[in-house]
Every structure is written in C-alpha cells, then in structure tokens.
C-alpha cells in the first residue's frame, strides 16, 4: 500500500512539473517570443496590428475570442503568403517554379503536423488557442520567408 501511495505521489509531482512547464511555454509563446522566430519575422509588422489590438481588447475576454483573433490574423497572413507565392512563381523559371511548388506542398504538410502537435500538448480549451496560435505563427513565418525570397530575386535583377 505504501508503495502505491509513493507512486501516486510521484505521479502527482510529475503532473505538477508538467503543468509548470506548460505554463512557462504558454508565457513565452504569448509574450511574443515565439520559438523558432528568426530575424525574418521581426518584432513589428503592420499586418500584426489588428491581432495585437484584438488580443488586447475583445480577445482577452474568452478562449473563443482569442481563437477568433488568431484565425482572423491567419487569414490576413495567408493572403500575404498566397500573394508572395504567386508573384515568386511568376518570376521563376519552370524548374525553380516546380521546386517552389513541391516545397510549398511539403511546408503545408509540416504546418498541419505542427498544428496537431501544438494542439496535442495539453488538454482543455487552451488547446484551441495553441492550435490557432501555431497556425498563425507558421503562416506568418512562411509569408515572410516567401516575401524575402521575392525581395532577393528582385534585388538580383
């Protein structure tokens, strides 16, 4: 009986440590210090202003409101991503355009898997926020990457 109680206490301590770790991860993620964010992403971008305002206002009222803020911001960045992709593809030779298409398809598979991972980190309604935030961050990062490729291509001409 004592041995079982010890295992139960050990399991409870592990849950406490896991909760603390997840809390720390959420603090880092929501403070704008997203993991994997590089110099391309930068801190400020005009397309991020509506998200910041939403999260400071109505997005702070509920989980669903926060999710909606991220979903709206993702739509904006997805449009920027698609514009950059189309512009880049139009300027590439056929072989490079095919490479871009293949890479983009692989990126979409990565994005989807990464969102599933983020959503699976924790149970409860916060999982919706994590999934929405992950989709926003991945879409934003990819849009900025494609825009940087487009800028480099235009600079080389």
Q: Can you summarize this structure?
A:
The chain is mainly alpha-helical. Helix content is 78%, strand content 0%. It has 2 domains: 1-31; 38-155, Up-down Bundle (Substrate Binding Domain Of Dnak, Chain:A, Domain 2).
Question: Please, could you describe this protein's structure?
Answer:
The protein starts with a helix and ends with a helix. The chain has five helices and no strands. The chain folds into two domains: 1-31; 38-155, Substrate Binding Domain Of Dnak, Chain:A, Domain 2. Helix 2 (49-56) runs antiparallel to helix 3, helix 3 (63-91) packs antiparallel against helix 4 (94-120) and helix 4 (94-120) runs antiparallel to helix 5. The protein is globular, with a radius of gyration of 20 Å. The model is unreliable at 24-41 (pLDDT under 50). With 157 residues, it is an all-alpha fold. Helices cover 78% and strands 0% of the residues. Residues 58-146 form the Lysozyme inhibitor LprI-like N-terminal domain. This is DUF1311 domain-containing protein.
Strand and helix layout:
Layout (H helix, E strand, L loop, with lengths): L1 H29 L18 H8 L6 H29 L2 H27 L5 H30 L2
Helix pairs in contact: 2-3, 3-4, 3-5, 4-5
